[in-house]
Design brief:
This protein is an alpha+beta fold. It has a single domain, classed as Nuclear Transport Factor 2, Chain: A, CATH 3.10.450.50. It contains four helices and six strands; from the N terminus they run H-H-E-E-H-E-E-E-E-H. The protein has a six-stranded mixed β-sheet. Strand 4 and strand 5 form a beta hairpin.
Length: 148
């Protein structure tokens, strides 16, 4: 179902989906792991930096509970595109973060996310996702993203 386009070019549904992404991002930034995980569908399957296999919701919970402690100095997400077909939304967005790591050094990170959300009842839940490699000038110069 496609809604009427708004001034920003998004339909009402696309706006709700993006607000959902912002909401679960806010939860994880506040350290609210349990609230963050409420946005995950019970059948979630996705990728992360640490595993050669796809991970399930229970794996995400374990991973979040074992991450090194860092201080987030800034974190911004920016939508790239949202595509909705029936009860599935594919959300591509970028993020940039600045943080103080566990030894006190300030670091920056920029990458891309793809989140796949499924509508269940009135809620949009993450059913799958993928975190892209960190974007950096060094990776581009070394041609790490060349497609053969």
């Amino acid at each position: 179902m496609w809604g009427a386009k708004k001034i920003n070019g998004w339909t009402d549904t696309e706006e709700v989906v993006w607000k959902t992404v912002e909401s679960y991002t806010e939860q994880i930034l506040k350290g609210e792991t349990n609230n963050f995980l409420k946005y995950f569908h019970k059948d979630y399957s996705g990728w992360n930096y640490f595993s050669e296999r796809s991970v399930k919701k229970s794996d995400v919970k374990k991973e979040l509970n074992n991450l090194p402690k860092i201080e987030i100095l800034s974190y911004k997400i920016k939508p790239v595109s949202i595509q909705i077909k029936n009860d599935i939304a594919i959300v591509h967005y970028s993020y940039s973060a600045k943080y103080r790591d566990s030894i006190g050094e300030i670091r920056s990170k920029n990458a891309n996310y793809t989140d796949i959300l499924m509508k269940e009842g009135e809620s949009w839940l993450i059913i799958g996702d993928h975190i892209g490699n960190e974007l950096s000038i060094e990776n581009i110069k070394e041609d790490k993203y060349k497609i053969s």
